[in-house]
Amino acid sequence: MKPAPASPAPGIAVAKVAVTGAATGAASGALAALLQQMQRRSDFPAASAAIVAINRVASSEDGDATTLASAILKDYALTKRILRLVNSVPYGQFAGQRVSTISRAIVILGVDTIRSMTVSLLLFDQIRDRARAESLAIEFLRASLAALIARALCPIAIRGNAEEAYLCGLFHSLGRIIACCYFHDEAQSIRHLREREHLDEDQAAARVLGVSYEALGMAVAQGWGFPDSIVHSLQRLVPGRDPSPGHPLDGLRALSSFSATVAELIESTLPAERSAAIERLCRRYRDYLTLTPKQVDGATEAAIDGLFDLAAIFNLDIARSPLGEPLRQARRTAAAPPASPPFAVPAEPEPDAALVHDEPLRAEPINDCDALLTAGIQELSNALLDDGPLADILRIGAETVFRALTVRRVILCLRDGRTQRMVGRLAFGDDPAQPPGRFQFPLPAENAADAPLFNLILAQDIDVLVANAADAKIRERLPDWYRAHFDAPSFLVMPMRLRQSSVAMLYADVAAAGALQIAPKTFALLRTLRNQLVLAIKQQR
Question: Does a structural domain hold residue 215?
């Protein structure tokens, strides 16, 4: 294949192809052309933008749970699917109760876990709604198995970050997945060339695409903003050919290569031969990883169980994939057989049998304002009982309001005792140009007839829904700073008072006048939620 040159496109820049050790000379030109062809596909830039945004948050020095939650919440469908995944069997055991907000999920599982979960979902999106979804689903299952093995082995092999190891394992075969997605015919040619001439995968890919799968995967991962530790791990380590560990990131690279090889052995070897193959593999990697066959067997069993759970969540029928029989054989005979119908092997496959099903992911929560508020109130109660940090509790409350009311923006303000000002501390919404700190005004509130609107609301301690901020009587009370930076056509203000003093304020707005309408029952739930936030502030004082 000789890709035609193309003009640069937004997203993964051509400059990103200069991956050290991955592509040089003519290969760099071929790689640049491949990336530019991918950019012209309507779905690739969208997926890339989402992954880049998540990685930018995770890698920034000031990135925190609020920023990560806000980035995820911008994608409504992604938010719902992450919450379904969080409440599934593999993760639900950590929560102990149903999780209804991304903020609570981050508190329970951590930023790294939610990040790897988000990236997995975004990668899975690449196989949906495609004519060749079945072959891509098989590649996703293979990559996920390697990732789960890497996560399970990480604590004993390199004592590193297990979620980073998971991403390294997931992306170890990224180049092949990308080729299956965007260069399917070429990927088929590579497979046939390997079989016909007994070439390794990267040799065959270089012959067909002009660049190896390894270099393609590294360039895409680098363009998506993954850290050097993950990009470096995409280089397959070959014991005996590569020197002993000298690079500080070689631990993850070795673990990624080892885990991918174990996943391949599960699929390609008979159970009677697998133990000896694993033992030989441990000996080959002993200069990089200190692992015993028993440790690998335990990690593999946990990974296989995790893959069956993951497949059920994604509605992938493992039984109909090439992995189905080897995975069942690799499970210990003492393990209980899965009871769920998708894993049963039919005596004769139905003519229309498919590995990828069209149904949405399971256990989808009800998308209803009052239901979301009720769930959020319960989640706040759980957080209060856990005596968690105030920042986590406030974030759960603000996110609940943001999702339930489907507003443009939510800002939670706290009183600054030093400056005697009400200051925006956290925000949710698609408005990165307006940091929450711009929403601030002096206290104490004035109760004079000409007091600014927000001061008047706090002084009277009333909840106010402004349906039309363009009304002359409302407009004249809006302060200059608000009209300059926010100026919403309709908004809600809910003060929070403690011991006759305003301590916080919840603000939410929409983009159109009259678009924010709240039923009496919903308002009652909002007040209950607000009261829980006041209780949290009181407990922390």
Answer: no
